[in-house]
């Protein structure tokens, strides 16, 4: 729909007023027409950075940050292909989570393995059988290291959380998504010596590889779509993660990947924002 505010309600429209910003960072196709409208109102002075393919009007954007695992072709000097999605798990956020949750996990023997469990997606179910297989393998890997598990689930885990709890054994701590209270997800990620993450979640995989810990992705064929598989291949090729096969090498030194930092660097390098 071009440069337009047609997708906004009246209250949102009223808040889009001068002075126009120097830089607009937007995400997703629904935001793209609004970003283009702001640039038009600014007389072309506002720089536009779009997270994910805006769908059309590519030349209007100064930088398009596109996931490399997406299908289709998009090329140009204004295209930045990112391996993983940007997220909120910066070093400062992890440090704050480390301080908040450290006392809760101190009794668990090291090495402590964070087991980050997502769940069913629109295309693939996360079954009780998968939960049993994953948790059994994670417990065995932890036992082989003499360590423990810090397990967190999400709303997408659904009723399969019962199978998760049933399959866990050995030293562990479990957060059930339905138990209420704060989810220690960020704390587990910050305090872990290693990470196992279910591979159907692009965001959890991206957050895990930013931690600098050895990351292992649980990726059974019945859970993983071709899109997820391409993400995993890129993470493995870059030395950021490995596929979980039941064994964890805690001496492996992965390459940390912080996509938000890389996008910020690309913005600065192109002169769209003046400070690091």
List the keywords.
alpha/beta, six-stranded parallel sheet, four-stranded parallel sheet, 276 residues
Could you explain the architecture of this structure?
With 276 residues, the protein is an alpha/beta fold. It has 9 helices and 10 strands. The chain has helices at residues 10-15, 32-41, 91-105, 128-145, 161-167, 185-191, 202-209, 226-237, 259-269, and strands spanning 23-27, 47-51, 63-67, 79-82, 112-116, 148-152, 172-175, 194-198, 215-218, 242-243. The strands form 2 sheets. A 6-stranded parallel β-sheet has the order 7-6-5-8-9-10, sandwiched between helices. The relative contact order is 0.14.
Our Rg estimate from Cα atoms comes to 21 Å
What separation lies between the terminal Cα atoms?
34 Å
**Number of helix segments?**
9
Mean pLDDT: 94
Layout of helices and strands:
Blueprint: H1 10-15, E1 23-27, H2 32-41, E2 47-51, E3 63-67, E4 79-82, H3 91-105, E5 112-116, H4 128-145, E6 148-152, H5 161-167, E7 172-175, H6 185-191, E8 194-198, H7 202-209, E9 215-218, H8 226-237, E10 242-243, H9 259-269
Parallel strand pairs: 1-2, 2-3, 3-4, 5-6, 5-8, 6-7, 8-9, 9-10
Helix pairs in contact: 3-6, 4-5
